[in-house]
Design brief:
Helix content: 40-55%
Number of strands: 10
Structural class: alpha+beta
Number of helices: 19
Largest sheet: 8 strands, antiparallel
Radius of gyration: 37 Å
């Protein structure tokens, strides 16, 4: 008898010692599903329990999160099969509800000889399955504020020597209560981490929404970049025999890529709307320029009529009307040329540029008799932009959004797992040949994650249907442009090859 007591004491002492190791394991596990499963598994191991259920309080009820039953070979919840057990009300009728309500442990030697609580649930389960529920140990999970956040329910302690069901020994109850305390702390920490991550994600969504709401154009750009970037990173993971066979992004690293993608354009918050929303070369100035040309035409005609009236030798009506029509024709040509040059899809070649300069050199008489130019220097500069809608000064302002992104993200305190987000987000316009911006990085100075962002950012810019300054370029032509950029060492050829091979845009669910 003394030998059995000594053995039992040594086993309990060993279990107490194991709590230290368990505490370390619980504190290091960040996956909530794994953490819940670990808590129930360790509790069952310590007490030799045949079965058990771990409940968490949700909506003022106990929701079963993990269910184990060795005899019935049942393992539900976590990474296993879905749990269909209805939630348990938190009241004094059911034992788990009582434990949650009062925060005390309940140890029941035999549920069939106990009328303290309503055990119709386990008895009905026994009737349906042939299982026999006997002993039960129910422990509250209390957080650091002594608030009950869950309940641990263990069933049928097994005697290791006889393999028979026995009541849960009191000393085991103390150990499990200690484990429950450790578990509650670990769960609270895990939930706090999840809440912090959720807060960061929601903050990012708010910032992106704010950026998108500033402009009716490319409102879905950020969302598409995030989807494409993650899809391309996952394609790298699938490339087990190709160029990227030795590269793998785990879930934390995928989170870095995705977060950097969501934040890559946050600096556009600081870009003036006059630059951000500039749809054409003259943009909102075009109606005023055209109005000026119409006015100049009328002034030119009036001035011609005044000259004719003052002439010593009157001209025939036919000649006068013909000259009037010539003036109208000339100014209509000026008008058409400016409308054509204002269109961002028009490439301003040397011939068209010279026409614009000629129009700019044309003057018309003002009210005070002073000759006024048809176009200002600023309008000439804008109309002579070869491609796109931005002048060199405006393009510099737009490119500076990367610097603003860097400045804004430097103010955010990213955790260890996301510490690389700012540098990756700020590199999406760098090019392998060193001619990108803002820092002119070259080759291996640009990390793989930033190269991913670069490719998907350009791809979306080419294929987007919501850009006011350009039409969407068909998929095959867009891929051809990307291939040309890769040959010029602007973007990563191997990465582009994988992007095309895996048809990443389809995995990102983009309608192309």
């Amino acid at each position: 008898m003394k030998e059995m007591e000594q053995y039992h004491f040594e086993e309990v002492a060993q279990q107490l010692s194991n709590l230290i190791s368990i505490a370390i394991a619980l504190s290091s596990e960040k996956d909530l599903a794994k953490l819940l499963d670990m808590i129930l598994s360790e509790a069952r191991r310590i007490t030799h329990a045949d079965a058990g259920t771990l409940y968490m309080i949700e909506d003022n009820k106990l929701a079963a999160k993990i269910v184990h039953n060795d005899t019935m070979n049942t393992f539900l919840g976590g990474k296993g099969d879905q749990i269909t057990i209805p939630p348990v009300p938190i009241n004094d009728i059911y034992v788990s509800g009582y434990v949650a309500n009062h925060g005390v442990s309940i140890n029941i030697p035999d549920v069939y000889n106990d009328d303290s609580f309503d055990f119709s649930g386990p008895k009905k389960y026994d009737e349906m399955t042939g299982y026999l529920t006997r002993s039960m140990l129910v422990i509250p999970l209390k957080n650091h504020k002594s608030e009950v956040i869950g309940v641990l329910q263990l069933l049928n302690a097994i005697d290791k020597n006889t393999n028979e069901v026995i009541p849960f020994p009191k000393e085991y109850q103390l150990i499990i209560e200690s484990l429950a305390s450790l578990a509650a702390t670990a769960l609270t920490n895990s939930q706090l981490i999840q809440e912090i991550e959720a807060l960061l994600d929601s903050f990012i969504q708010v910032m992106v929404t704010a950026i998108d709401s500033r402009t009716p154009y490319n409102a879905t750009h950020t969302q598409k970049i995030a989807s494409l970037a993650r899809a391309l990173a996952e394609a790298i993971n699938e490339d087990t025999e190709g160029f990227y066979k030795d590269v793998y992004f785990d879930e934390k690293e995928l989170k870095v890529v995705s977060t950097a993608a969501w934040l890559h354009d946050i600096g556009k918050m600081a870009v003036p709307l006059s630059v951000m929303n500039k749809a054409t070369r003259l943009d909102k100035k075009l109606p005023f320029v055209l109005q000026r040309i119409d006015y100049a035409m009328e002034r030119k005609i009036n001035h011609y009529f005044e000259t004719v009236l003052q002439a010593e030798n009157p001209l025939s009506v036919t000649l006068i009307l013909k000259e009037k029509e010539n003036i109208k024709k000339t100014y209509k040509h000026y008008r058409d040329t400016i409308i054509k040059a204002d269109n961002p899809s028009t490439f301003i070649d040397e011939e068209l540029k010279q026409e614009i300069l000629y129009i700019a050199s044309t003057t018309y008489p003002g009210e005070d008799g002073t000759d006024l130019p048809l176009l200002t220097d600023e309008e000439v500069e804008q109309l002579c932009i070869q491609r796109g809608t931005l002048t060199a000064k405006e393009r510099k302002i737009m490119e500076d959004h990367v610097l603003f992104t860097e400045r804004m993200l430097s103010k955010m305190r990213f955790g260890t797992e996301l510490k690389r987000v700012p540098e990756i987000a700020c590199m999406h316009h760098e090019q392998l040949d060193g001619k990108g911006y803002p820092n002119g990085l070259k080759g291996d100075q640009i990390p793989l994650e930033a190269r991913i962002l670069a490719i998907v950012d350009i791809f979306d810019a080419l294929t987007a249907v919501d850009r006011p300054y350009k039409k969407a370029i068909p998929l095959d032509k867009s891929l051809s442009i990307l291939q040309s950029m890769a040959k010029e060492n602007k973007i990563d050829q191997n990465l582009l090859d994988l992007f095309i091979k895996k048809r990443v845009w389809e995995k990102a669910s983009l309608p192309l």
